[in-house]
Amino acid sequence: MSKRYFVLLALGIVALGVHAGAAHAQSPGKPGHAAIASAHKLATAAGFETLAAGGNAFDAAVTVAAALSVVEPQSSGIGGGGLFLLHRAADARDVMVDARETAPAAVDAKKYLDAKGDLDQDKSWNGPLAAAIPGEVAGMVWISQHYGKLPLSTSLAPAIRIARDGFQPDSRFLRELASRADVIRRYPAGAALLLENGTAPKAGWTFKNPDLAHTLELVAANGDDGFYRGEFAHRLVDGVKAAGGGWSLQDLDGYRVKEREPLAFDYRGWHIVTASPPSSGGIALAEMLNILSAYDLAKYDSTHRIHFIVEAMRRAYRDRAEYLGDPDYVKMPIERLTGMKYADKLRASIQADKATPSSSLPGYLNPHESTHTTHFSIIDADGNMAGVTQTVNLPFGNGMVVAGTGFVLNNEMDDFALKAGAPNAFGLVGNDANAPKAGHRPLSSMTPSFVIGADRVGVIGTPGGSRIITMVLEGILSFIDGELPAQIVAKPRFHHQYLPDVISAEPHAFSADETRSLEKMGYVVNEGERTWGFMNVVSWDRKTGEMHAAADPRGTSGSGEVK
User: Within a domain: residue 183?
Assistant: First the structure.
């Protein structure tokens, strides 16, 4: 069996809707309880089933990831990939397992352009050209074999059962399925799996997926050989080619996950462990917190606190566009970007009472991700932690299912800079560092993070496309301020990503006075935008032994517990 790695961004939490769980540890050295938070109650319950069978947080991560493939295919699945941030308590080892998708060898950026040479978003969003080589199965297998205690057959059993027996999808699943029905209808196998007589199902529909159950059984029995080679691999390649794509058997056989050193740094007495490239999240987070480290934010009025945070966001996202890409192929100035000397230089350009126009920042070359991602967090009774962010990119990925497989393929090719300077689905831009090349991994915003203080530990992560990084920043600042997970996940959010040069704000993120003050500083504020993200946070107070967990109330089926 070949060695393969899988990626999931890590964060830990447990909750049901706005519910927050709390429990006391049995000893100061270990939590004594476990906490799981995910986007669906069935996935959370499946994770606890694996813990009860003798598994650890890493076995449970495999279980929850697989279960979400069944119950939340609009956001993630084995047709996609992710990042796993892991902490092993026994030796205090932190590692990031990179299961990000890779570009097929036949990739050609010109195929994504229209007759005028402009980016054709239908090709980058929908159908076979949009799909990169999936990494999630390789990641689950790798984590099970190298960090888990249980066989894959045990860890995957709950997902297999749910797929075969069926479940009733929630309103979010049905709403997002309806929004993508026109694309799904183009591909017969996808329409047969997800639609009823060619139309989106209504509430009360029971979704059974025996093909996905069979696919997971192949993985349970054969590991990654059951997916990346042999008869199943032939089925995938033949299906993609028949639809007009360019996958090969060599693309699947050659996929490898990568174990990477997480990015770690300190902020005002706290230690942060977070995602390293090919995620841009950790580098951007380090830049922002380094800039903010010189400000005692608690001493400023709310408007100036927002001002400094937004200016830090603006500068970090500007660097994301220019410098970052696949670390196996692109040399990036990570040490400089995450260094305090660089932060001091960036901070010096921030005026105390005036917005900095993005157009005035020097050195940016030419201007160029989905909210439909998922994140779950786990802390087990021994203190092992897993923060996992996984995705298929846009809702239901590229809308295509290969007959007999049971899962949608991703459209992660859109996360590459298919045309330098052209925005992707999330308005992000990029250059040659993130160009689509054979075997390369697209840049991601996934930012699973551990926040470690003298007495308190938090695991934080969220979906949200380009807004992931700023949500995690705001979550970390709130955690450091002493807020509990239930408060953190429920707070209204704001965001700035360099381009477009506006502050996006959820309803009630700012008061009327704050908005007026920000506008006087020169900001454009888009108030009352739709809500975004689905943050899951778990915390452990090592001094008192108390654990707290919460799932984002913006979701409809989020669930978690401490027990």
Answer: no
Q: Residues 486-491: what's their mean pLDDT? A: 95
Question: Could you tell me which residues come within 8 angstroms of residue 136 by beta carbon, excluding any fewer than 6 positions away?
Answer: 6, 7, 65, 69, 76, 77, 78, 79, 80, 81, 82, 99, 390
Q: Is residue 478 part of a domain?
A: yes
Find out whether 408 and 396 touch, Cβ atoms under 8 Å: yes
List helix spans (H) across 338-456.
Answer: 340-348
Count of other CB atoms within 10 angstroms of residue 560: 34
Note whether residue 536 is domain-resident.
yes
In which domain, by residue range, is 349 found? 264-369+447-562
CATH of the domain at 305: 1.10.246.130
The reply to whether 303 falls in a domain is: yes
Tokens read off for 39? 């986007």
Q: 321, 268 in Cβ contact below 8 A?
A: no
Give the whole-angstrom CA distance, residue 450 versus residue 285: 12
pLDDT digits over 441-464, tens only? Answer: 988 889 999 999 999 999 999 999
Instruction: State how far the Cα of 462 lies from the Cα of 447, in Å rounded to an integer.
Output: 8
Contact between 357 and 522 under an 8 Å Cβ cutoff? The reply is yes
37, 40, 68, 55: which is closest to 163 by C-alpha?
A: 68
Give the whole-angstrom CA distance, residue 24 versus residue 82. Answer: 32
Give residue 433's pLDDT.
67
Lowest mean pLDDT among 94-108, 179-193, 329-343: 329-343
Q: Could you please report the per-residue DSSP string of 234-296?
A: HHHHHHHHHTT----HHHHHT---EEEPPEEEEETTEEEEEPPTTBSHHHHHHHHHHHHTTS-
At 104, the amino acid letter reads: P
Nearest to 6 by CA among 258, 329, 236: 258
Tally the domains of the chain: 1
Residues annotated as catalytic are 373
Mapping DSSP to helix (H, G, I), strand (E, B) and coil, where does residue 487 land?
A: helix
Helix, strand or coil, per DSSP, at residue 380 = coil
